[in-house]
Amino acid sequence: MKKSVQAIALSSSLLLTAGMAQGATAYVSNEKDNTLSLIDLESLEVVDTIEVGQRPRGIIFNKDYSLLYICASDDDTVQIMDVATHTIIDELPSGEDPEQFSLHPDDRKLYISNEDDALVTVVDTQTKTVIAQIDVGVEPEGMAVSPDGSLAINTSETTSMLHWIDTSSHELIHNTRVDQRPRHVEFNKDGSTLWASSEIGGTVAVIDVASKEILKKLSFKIRGIHPDKIQPVGVKLTDDDKYAFVALGPANHVAVVDASTYEVLDYLLVGRRVWHMTFNADQSILLTTNGMSSDVSVIDVDDLKVTKSIKVGRYPWGVVVKP
Amino acid sequence: MAAICRIFVCLALGLLSVTAQVQAKETFSVGYLELIQERPPLLSNVLPIPEDDGLQGARLGLADNNSAGRFLGQHFELLEAKDSDLNALLKQADNWYQQGVRTLVTKMPASALTTLSNHFSERSMLLLNAGSTEDSLRQSSCLNNVLHTIPSRAMLADALTQWLMAKRLKHWLLIEGQKAGDKAFADALRRGAKRFGAKIIATKQWTFDTDLRRTAQKELPLFTQTDEYDVVVVADELGDFGEYVLYNTWYPRPVVGTQGLRPTAWHRVVEQWGAAQLQSRFEKQAERWMTDNDYAAWLAVRSVGEAIAMQTKASMDAVPGLLTSDEFQLAGFKGRKLSYRPWSGQLRQPIPLIHPRALISQAPQEGFLHPRTDLDTLGYDKPESQCQIAKQFAATK
After folding, report:
1. Fewer CB within 10 A of the end CB, N or C, for chain A?
2. Nearest by CB to B331, which of A163, A180, A226?
3. Which of B60, B67, B378 to mutate to test the interface with A (most CBs of A within 10 A)?
4. Do B271 and B134 fall into the same domain?
5. Which range of residues forms the domain containing residue B66?
6. What is the pLDDT of residues B77-102, one digit of tens each?
C-alpha cells in the first residue's frame, strides 16, 4: 500500500535529509493500544510512544515527511499528525472504518479503503474534502497507486477481487479475480508489475500491469507448518527488483522471493502473526510488525537474517520510516 | 402464518424480477426454505430466539454475492418461504423448480430435510442444509443431493472434547436432558470421549419439572453429587435447565457443553480473522447479532456465489460438482479456507468455543493431527461414514 508512494518519497527525501542530524525513525501503529511506537533506527530502540485515535492501522507520510496520515479505524477518520511536534493537527473526512490507504504521487489525493462500506474514498488532503467515492467489492482492504499515478488498485477481501480504478475519471476500468481474501497490493518500482497477496488462498499473484494478466501465482511451503496457516498479507519489493518479501501471517515467517524468477529463496522466522513491513531509506533493513507477539522484527536485507526483535505496543499493524 | 409468508414470497419475487430486468444480467436464483417449528416452554426463557434466525444470514450472503456479481455480470436473487406445514414448502419448492431454481438453502430438522431430499430424488436440485446438526445425515443416511454448512453435533462435541483433553479435564459428569436433541448431543459427547480418551464418571438424566429459577440452589448441588469429576458436561440443546447448572455444582468445577463453555458454528464474540467486519455488516442489516444459524445460511448462499464466480461461463448445473471438488475454497472468517468433505458433503470448519462474553478457544486444538487436514479431526471422518456424495455429484454432472 504505502510502498509505491514511499519509493517516490524516499528518492526525493534522500536529497532533503542529507546532512540532517536527526536519525531515521520508524513509526509503528499499535492497533489495540491506540498509540504509535517510535523506533530509532540507529539504536533500534523504542524512543517514544504517542497517543493517537482509536484502532490505528494504516499509516503513511506525505512527501516531505512533515505530516503523518493515520487511519483511526474506530473513530471513522483519518488523522493528520504534525511530525515535528507529534500532535494531531487535523482530520480528514475518510468515510467509515478506514483501514488502508495510499497517497497519490501528486502528494494530494489520498485513496482510502472503507472496509465496512464497500467503498474507496478519494480525499483531497489540501481542501480536506471528498473528491470521489467508488463502489468496490465487499470489505475493501489493500490500496496502491501506481508510480505514474494513473491507476489505483483496491482489493476487496470477501469479493476476492482487485479493482482497477482510473485516477483521472475515478471509474472502475477492470476487475481481476484472485484467490480468497486478497489483503495487500504493491507495485514494483517502475510500475510494470503488481503483486497481490491472498490471505486465505495462501498465494501471491504477480500481475502484468499493461495486459492486466496474472503472470504467476506464488505459493509457499514451510516444513512443519500446515499449508492453511500460511497466509500471505504484507508484500514489499526492493527498488532494484531483486527481492520480494512476503509476510506470511500466522505462519510467523517472511518469505524471500527472487523477484525476477519468482523462486522462493528462503523463509525467515519472525514474531507471531507477521502483518506489514517497510524498508529503511537505503533498503538495508526491513522491519516487520508482528501482531500477536507485539513486536517488530528487524531483517538484514543483504544477509537475509533476522537480527533483532523490538517490543512495541499491543497488536502492531503498520510501519513506516522517516529517513 | 402460512398465508402471510406466501404473500411475502410473492412480494420478494416481484421486486427481484424487476431489478433483474433493469440490470439485464445473468440471474442465478437460490431458494430459502424454512420449516417453522414450535418451541416448547423452557425454564430459562429470558432470551428469545429471533424470528428471522437463519434467513437474515441468507440475505447477507445474497448481498455479498451480488457485490461480487456486479463486476462479473452476474446477479443473484433469493426466494424466501417459511411455513409450519412441510407440504406447503414442498409445493413452493415445486413451483420454484418450474421457474428454474436448482439450489435451495434449508432450515429444517432432519426428518423434513429427508422428505424434501426424496421429493427431488428424480430431479436435479441441490439442497444446502443450514439447519440440522443431525449426525446420521453425515454418517449413514447420506442424502445424495444434500450438502451441509452447519456443523454436525459430532463436530461440536469433538471440538469441545479436544479442548477438554488439552486442558486435562478428563473426568466428566455428563448431564443429559430428556429431549431427542439432548440425547443426540449426549451421544455425540460419548463418542467424543471414547475417541479422544475422556472418562465419563457418571451420567445423569435431568427429569425434574420444578421451576429451577427458584430452586436451582437447592436441587443442583445434590443432583451433581457423584464421584469426583473434573468438569460437568451438559447436553441441553434448548436451554431448559442447563443455565442453572453453572455455579450450582456439588464440586466447584467448570460447566461446558450446551451451556457454560459452548462449541458453536458462530457467535457475536468471534471477531478475529476479519470477522468483526462480517459481524458489523450483519448488525447493520438485521439490527441484531449473527447466530450460528445465520452463519450457516450465509455460508450456503456464499458457497453458491463462489461456485458461480469460479466459472468462466457460469451455470447452476456445475455448482454441486464444483462445491465438492478440490478447487473449491471459501473464506468464512475463521482464519482458514473452508471446503466440503467429498464423502459426507459437510463443510469443514474450525469451531469456536465461546462463553457469552468471550471467545475462549477455537478447535481443532493444536496437536490433534490428521493426514489430510486437522479440520477432519472434527466429526465423522471418511472411514467412519458410509456416504460418498462427491462421487454421486460427479456421476450426475
Report:
1. C
2. A180
3. B67
4. yes
5. 2-151+267-396
6. 999 999 999 999 999 999 999 999 99
